């Protein structure tokens, strides 16, 4: 069922257009990475501040609160470009284990948000006063850094999995044989 | 003679001995530009007056500077190693050549005009132009990097 969904998605006009032009796909991939570098930089600095490793002269709330909106905006951009990339090669990605590892890691990050957002990232102002950062805050920051780094590496891994040509639709197969 | 030399170099290139070396270097490269371009972008957003506005541009620039260097070091160590895995291909690749030009421009711009504007707490149109040029240059470096595999 997931496979037929993937085949249907990539056959739609938008995703076919991404796939069929030689430059549209790399342009979207580049935009995906531009957004990742900005989003990633903000994730890194937020969590390094919570770990007490960066921006120590700044209030925790100055870092965490001020980066929340841009982080969200750039996450949406990363996701939009990512969906365009994945959708245009949905059938191929269905067979790509790194794609599924990446999606699983993103699911874990959703769990991370459910567990830690209310108690840590929404309470940054309360952390301005503490002398020693509580363990759960450091745990949240360390896990976030670890998971996002793994997401980036898994994303890069997607490009290394050879598509199973014999299983793909003829029209998709021609891209690889060009 | 020339040909046998090439074969020797290829056989002995330690960067091609393990299939993992290249992808691991690429991951370090990605993390490096999240640190460097990410922190430069934060200064740009401050100069554009959109985010980090509780601090002055000079404060943001000083806060981010060591992390920009940290990211640049990761990029400039992993990058040449990626290059050296297949120098002939990269050297002749137009996108790679473009990327190197933009990288050089980006670095020079960042440590001259960009740095001066931020440390002097520039505002108004001048600050916005500097921030926009910075963002375009660094985005261009990323475009150049991605297109290496597509041209």
In terms of topology, how is this protein built?
The complex is a heterodimer of chains A (178) and B (151).
Chain A: H1 2-11, H2 13-20, H3 24-50, H4 60-88, H5 90-94, H6 97-116, H7 135-158, H8 170-177
Helix pairs in contact in A: 2-4, 3-4, 3-7, 6-7
Chain B: H1 2-12, H2 21-47, H3 57-85, H4 87-92, H5 94-119, H6 124-147
Can you describe what's shown?
The complex is a heterodimer of chains A (178) and B (151). Chain A has eight helices and no strands. Chain A is an all-alpha fold. Chain A has one domain. The model of chain A has no long low-confidence stretch (mean pLDDT 91). In chain B, 81% of the residues lie in helices and 0% in strands. Chain B has one domain. By secondary structure, chain B is mainly α. At the A-B interface, α3, α4 and α7 of A face α2, α3 and α6 of B.
**Total helical elements of chain A:** 8
* Beta-strand proportion of chain B: under 5%
How would you state the average pLDDT of chain B, rounded? 92
- Low-pLDDT windows of residues of chain A: none
H/E element string of chain B? HHHHHH
**Number of structurally distinct domains of chain B:** 1
Distance between the termini of chain A: 29 Å
Binned strand content of chain A: under 5%
Outline of this structure?
Chain A is an all-alpha fold. Helices cover 74% and strands 0% of the residues of chain A. Chain A contains eight helices and no strands.
Structural features:
heterodimer, A: about 180 residues, mainly alpha, 8 helices, B: about 150 residues, 6 helices, elongated
């Amino acid at each position: 069922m997931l496979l037929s969904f993937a085949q249907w998605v990539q056959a739609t006009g938008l995703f076919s257009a991404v796939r069929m032009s030689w430059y549209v796909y790399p342009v979207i991939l580049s935009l995906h990475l531009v957004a990742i570098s900005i989003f990633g930089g903000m994730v890194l600095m937020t969590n390094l501040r919570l770990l007490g490793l960066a921006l120590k002269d700044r209030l925790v709330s100055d870092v965490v609160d001020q980066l929340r909106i841009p982080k969200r905006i750039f996450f949406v951009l990363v996701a939009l470009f990512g969906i365009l990339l994945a959708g245009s090669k949905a059938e191929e990605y269905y067979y790509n284990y790194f794609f599924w590892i990446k999606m699983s890691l993103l699911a874990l990050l959703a769990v991370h948000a459910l567990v830690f957002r209310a108690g840590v990232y929404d309470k940054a102002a309360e952390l301005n006063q503490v002398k020693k950062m509580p363990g759960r805050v450091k745990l949240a920051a360390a896990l976030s850094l670890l998971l996002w780094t793994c997401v980036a590496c898994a994303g890069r891994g997607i490009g290394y999995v050879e598509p199973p040509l014999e299983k793909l639709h003829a029209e998709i197969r021609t891209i690889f044989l060009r | 003679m020339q040909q046998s030399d090439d074969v020797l170099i290829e056989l002995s290139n330690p960067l091609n001995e393990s299939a993992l070396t290249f992808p691991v270097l690429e991951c370090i490269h990605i993390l490096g530009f999240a640190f460097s371009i990410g922190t430069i972008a934060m200064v740009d957003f401050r100069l554009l007056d959109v985010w980090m506005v509780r601090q002055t541009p000079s404060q943001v620039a000083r806060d981010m500077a060591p992390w920009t260097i940290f990211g640049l070091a990761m990029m400039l160590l992993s990058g040449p190693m990626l290059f050296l895995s297949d120098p002939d291909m990269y050297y002749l690749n137009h996108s790679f050549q473009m990327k190197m030009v933009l990288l050089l421009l980006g670095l020079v711009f960042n440590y001259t005009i960009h740095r001066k504007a931020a440390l002097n707490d520039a505002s108004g149109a001048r600050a916005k132009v500097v921030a926009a040029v910075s963002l375009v240059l660094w985005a261009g470096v990323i475009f150049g990097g991605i297109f290496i595999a597509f041209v």
